[in-house]
Design brief:
Layout lengths: L10 H12 L4 E3 L8 E4 L8 E8 L16 E7 L5 H11 L5 E6 L2 H16 L4 E6 L17 H13 L4 H14 L1 E6 L18 E4 L10 E4 L3 H12 L8 E7 L5 H12 L7 E8 L9 E8 L4 H5 L10 E3 L23 H16 L1 H8 L7 H14 L9 H15 L2 H19 L4 H16 L9 H11 L3 H14 L16 H4 L5 H13 L1
Parallel strand pairs: 3-4, 3-5, 5-6, 10-11
Antiparallel strand pairs: 1-2, 2-4, 7-8, 7-12, 8-9, 10-12, 11-13
């Protein structure tokens, strides 16, 4: 897989230097590339307890992204998914540790435990006070003698970091860190594996499946489960966590494993707060990429009881990668401003008109996937979704529509589309039907009113026949509709097919697309019009 790297051998050192160049003046690195890769606070007061963590790279922003006031004092970086060497860990300890001592925060992987543990012994031989805690928050593999350390480690960083900043002693901080480790639980889920630089992605998770309980190094999970929706995915994660979670308020850390979009993560946050554990989650960190697994398209949830740690969790920190710990609350909803609250028309019934509108809506809904695929060739792939979303909303609104009054019906449809249909097409169709209602009120017949609506959207939108838009099918269709519906369908199809020969779009998103990518593909808006008329016939 193509990636934005220069070489596998240099990617970690180059990434660290890139972070330092853009990371302000409070960070530095210890000399010793390529074997010693240690990021430290350059503003550190050695009279306080130092916090050193780290491990393999590929989990960014962990660990170097959390070095700074209120969190880590130093991060020791290994190669991708590989533990740092003993010398590298020792360099980190020696660079930041004073008389107050140092706490090593280590994830429970054999390489990390051994290398950090031996470095601690060597540091003690220098006369330094060093304690080590091992995080084992992953509950995915219940029969594993030593559970893995995953994103719950960040709770340890944050709480211990706040205490160190306030001047607590090493024994107190180590005890508090161990208390967090004893109580935090985590589990992850992903739709795909990660891509290790220089290697091919492992095709382990089939389509329609998700892997539950996989590790942050891409290790297989405890099981592959059916994937349907975000709601169901979160329910399965919560089902694993619930037996480990006690009563009382908890803080959740919702972690993006690297490849999920912010949109998906916000949906997962909603589902977590509405889940079986939602009433116990009173604070949340994220959703954000915190301890990733390169580009893994998944998430993890970590839960920690709130037993007096709110002060440390909400204390201000310097690292920008920490998103903050915020209270979970109901969305605040404000009334629509004056002038936007719609005046609802008086509903009326007409069975024939209702059946016709429902038929039109069902046609557009059925074409969603085909139109999206066509739009992906010349736009952003959402024409089908935009039309089907509006069609579903219109069907749901029919009970409050003035179906027996064509003039008011045109206007009501325009109002509904302006509220429910996204993009420029939604605005244009809202204008189309509103103008048709005005024309109908002036005495134009049904076809004449629709033609008046078309004239208005050409005037407002600026597109004309030949510009490769839905107008290329709608204009000839309305002209032919004065004859009959089959003639209109034939004209719409001819207009839509002609758009495949127009390689210089003058309006719409296709105007940004190169000629060679447009050639041979119908405009999706015009195709939608043609398919609507053809299906009506």
């Amino acid at each position: 897989m193509t990636q934005f790297i220069n070489s596998r051998e240099t990617l970690v050192t180059e990434a660290i230097d890139g972070m330092l160049r853009a990371g302000g003046e409070s960070l530095a690195r210890v000399d010793g590339y390529p074997h010693i890769k240690v990021v430290v606070r350059s503003d550190w007061d050695r009279s306080k307890v130092a916090l050193v963590s780290g491990g393999g790279s590929g989990h960014e922003p962990s660990h170097a992204g959390f070095v700074g006031r209120g969190m880590l004092t130093a991060a020791v970086c290994g190669d991708v998914f590989a533990s740092p060497s003993v010398d590298a860990v020792l360099a980190g300890i020696l660079a930041v540790t004073g008389k107050a001592g140092c706490l090593l925060i280590v994830k429970n992987y054999t390489g990390d435990r051994l290398n950090f543990g031996l470095a601690a012994e060597r540091a003690r031989a220098f006369g330094l006070k060093v304690e080590m805690v091992v995080v084992d928050d992953d509950i995915a593999l219940p029969d594993l003698p030593q559970a893995r350390g995953v994103a719950g480690t960040l709770f340890v960083h944050k709480i211990a970091g706040a205490m160190a900043e306030d001047g607590a002693d090493l024994e107190t901080i180590a005890k508090a860190a161990q208390n967090v480790i004893d109580k935090v639980v985590s589990i992850g889920m992903s739709l795909d594996t990660c891509t290790v630089p220089g290697s091919e992605r492992e095709a382990r998770i089939p389509k329609g499946k998700a892997e539950l309980g996989l590790g942050i190094h891409g290790e297989p999970g405890v099981e592959q489960v059916e994937f349907t929706t975000a709601k169901d995915a979160m329910a399965q994660v919560v089902d694993k966590l619930a037996p480990k979670v006690g009563a009382g308020p908890h803080v959740a850390l919702l972690n993006n494993l690297g490849g999920a979009t912010p949109l998906e993560m916000s949906i997962l946050a909603q589902e977590l707060t509405q889940s079986a554990l939602g009433d116990r989650i009173t604070m949340m960190v994220g959703p954000a990429p915190l301890m990733t697994s390169l580009d893994m398209r998944g998430f993890s949830v970590s839960l920690l009881p709130l037993d007096g740690t709110e002060v440390q969790l909400t204390a201000d920190v310097a690292p920008q990668a920490w998103p903050g710990c915020m209270p979970v609350k109901e969305p605040k909803i404000l009334p629509l401003p004056d002038g936007l609250s719609p005046i609802q028309p008086m509903p009326s019934q007409n069975a024939e008109t209702r059946a016709f509108i429902e038929r039109c809506c069902d046609i557009l809904i059925a074409q969603e996937a085909d139109l999206n695929a066509l739009d992906a060739k010349s736009g952003d792939g959402d024409t089908g979704s935009t039309l089907s979303t509006a069609a579903r909303a219109l069907k749901d609104a029919l009970d409050r529509m003035p179906l027996a009054d064509l003039t008011q019906l045109y206007r009501a449809i325009g109002l509904e589309l302006s509220q429910t249909m996204g993009g420029s097409s939604g605005v244009l169709l809202a204008i189309f039907f509103t103008a048709a209602g005005d024309a109908s009120a002036s005495g134009r017949d049904a076809v004449g009113a629709l033609k008046a609506g078309l004239e208005r959207i050409m005037q407002v939108g600026g597109a004309q026949p030949g510009d490769r838009t839905m107008i290329d099918a709608l204009d000839p269709a309305l002209e032919a509709l004065q004859e009959d519906l089959p003639a209109a369908a034939k004209a719409a199809r001819a207009g839509a097919d002609h758009t495949a020969t127009i390689t210089r779009a003058k309006a719409g998103r296709a105007s940004y697309i190169s000629e060679e990518k447009l050639a041979g593909h119908n405009d999706p808006g015009a195709e939608a019009v043609a398919r609507l008329f053809e299906a009506l016939v």
